Amino acid sequence: xxxxxxxxxxxxxxxxxxxxxxxxxxxxxxxxxxxxxxxxxxxxxxxxxxxxxxxxxxxxxxxxxxxxxxxxxxxx
Length: 76
Hints:
The protein has about 80 residues and is mostly helical. The protein has 2 helices and no strands. It has one domain (about 10-75).
């Protein structure tokens, strides 16, 4: 035979609320850590792209100013 619902006490509800608050704080910290990691990855990607661009300019045998002048004149 069913016993019915267990009555929730103020103490049980408070404990559950504390657990939920703890989980929220944990996931906020995880999100913050992931955002920092994302920022580092974006910086590393940009650095790699800039190094590739610099290598291409250097391999062309032109100065960066000559290369930019040529790049802008071709774009017009």
